[in-house]
Amino acid sequence: MSEGFVEEKVFRRGRRIAVDVGDARIGVAVCDPDGLIATPVETVPAGGRSQARLKAIVEEYDAIEVVVGLPRSLNGKEGPAAAKVRAYAGRLAMLVYPVGVRLVDERMTTVTAAAGLRASGRSSKKGRSVIDQAAAVVILQAALETERCTAPPPGQCADRGPSPAVSRSPRGPRAPAPPHGPRSHARRRRPAVTDPYTAPGLTPGHLGAPVLEPEAAPPGLPYGVEPPDPGRLRTGAACCLSVAGLFGVLAAAAVALFLVWPEGKKPAPDFVGVGTGRVQVSVAQGASITQIGRTLTAKHVVASVRAFTEAAAKSPAGDRIHPGTYTLKEKMPAVAALNMLLDPSNANALTIPEGWRTTQVYTAIDTRLGLAAGTTKGIAEQHLADLGLPASADGHPEGYLFPATYPVTGDSTPLTLLQEMVKEADTQLDGDAVKDAAANNNISPYGLLAVASLAQAEADNPEDMAKVARVVYNRLAKNMPLQLDSTINYALGRSTLTTTVDDTRLDSPFNTYAHPGLPPTPIGNPGRDALRAAIHPADGDWLYFVTVQPGDTRFTDSSDQQRKNVDEFNAHRAQNPSPTPSDPSPVVP
Predict the structure, then answer these.
(1) In whole angstroms, what is the distance from residue 484 CA to residue 95 CA?
(2) 173 and 166 in contact (C-beta within 8 Å)?
(3) What is the rounded CA–CA span in Å between residue 314 and residue 304?
(4) pTM beyond 0.70, yes or no
(5) CA distances from residue 353 to 186, 316, 366, 374, 456 in whole angstroms, order as listed
(6) What is the number of structural domains in the chain?
(7) 323 and 361 share a domain?
(8) Do residues 398 and 486 share a domain?
(9) β-strand pairing of 65-70 with 16-21
(10) Do 403 and 457 belong to one domain?
(11) 360-397, pLDDT tens digit by residue?
(12) Domain end point (choices 293, 316, 347)
């Protein structure tokens, strides 16, 4: 038997959510924190908003994992239904990350649930939603027992006794092999969906735990392969038989469950009437329905989180609450509170559009807070050290006033709003993706922010932004001047398509006709799409681009073709002398 560490697979305490995905409905179940008993939650209508509701349920129960039933035929084959569930689980994993999503075998669960319903004397038509919830209960209970079967008590390695403190080989000390379970997060990358047919329980492909390449494998064996352990094989076989028998027990339990199944779950606590008093509630950018519900409950606006999330789930626009500060009443019915939050006119907020320059942001803050023109600019200059800018910005806020909607309260000041914007920009720029993309293109992370601002200024859709970013990187790699009119416009404080020969001779470090490389700072405040374009530029050899007319942006690596495209651009300009200021400008050879 080979030596080395084997991770202790201990059952993780915490609630788990199970879903039974159907074409029309999705049954949902939850277990207690100890993972002993699965109980029904609700039935969610299938469709575009179903995953948002599932995310809210995950947050409401503070779940540590989502278990998705994967339908297979009795012979173990997967059909179109399984493919749909796999795709659905993949999208759900991205939405609920970093909560894990795991696929488990769910053969015959709906049949078992229907049989239980018939045994309780109810019509199948009336109990369809109950069947879906019951199927989720069976799925979750089976997954819990399977995981417990593969998780020995703490302190004992799976079928091997206590783990050694150090692994040694005849050649001397050897580095311990990496853990085989999902609980090593040293190299977390991206969400994934665990496939139940590679290993029972929580497999190495579990969300947030990509498989790590084993180190120091025994000579003559490929990575990750160990000599078979007869004792482990016997125990594994016994465990599989136990799991197989478990499904029979679960089927009987499901029948018994439906004999006493309640006609409906207890309604969530809710207030009645019109409410009293006044209270301010702030909704942050990106807040989920559950998070908003918790805030409302803490402020005594609604009686319970569930009453609010259920009201939102029933509303066609329930997930379209705008960020901002709202004036509500205490002890309001959940539906009444939701309706007030769904009206954007009730939101006291400040929205910064993507691509706005710092001067525009300053003016907007002055206007929103009713201050004299120039107040925010003066405060920003006086409190540069308090804005939270990184050292690389060298005291320049441009690029760090992140475009978003920010709540405005009676306590809001120019300084607090600017600090929120810088903090949000730091959040967006934090991570290995920005550093890696910058290194791959031989620029600094601050330079990448400048590239994003150029893409934001030169394009009006994510696809073209990614291409513009590629043009910038290609020209930098060839030591070609960028020759972007947007940088001259920034230096002159204007926005126009008209760039003259004299303009290209402007004495400014932002003149990318006269100065090689990137401008000294970003030329605006890029949004998420522009940042994504700078991090993940499109593939191509382009060196030039021009928007001949709205919706017709052409990219090429040929100077001759570019001249033809520019001629068409000028002809279109002659026929349409009043272009919109936001139209991107051409890059000429």
Answers:
(1) 38
(2) yes
(3) 16
(4) no
(5) 37, 26, 16, 20, 11
(6) 4
(7) no
(8) no
(9) parallel
(10) no
(11) 999 999 999 999 999 999 999 999 999 999 999 999 99
(12) 347
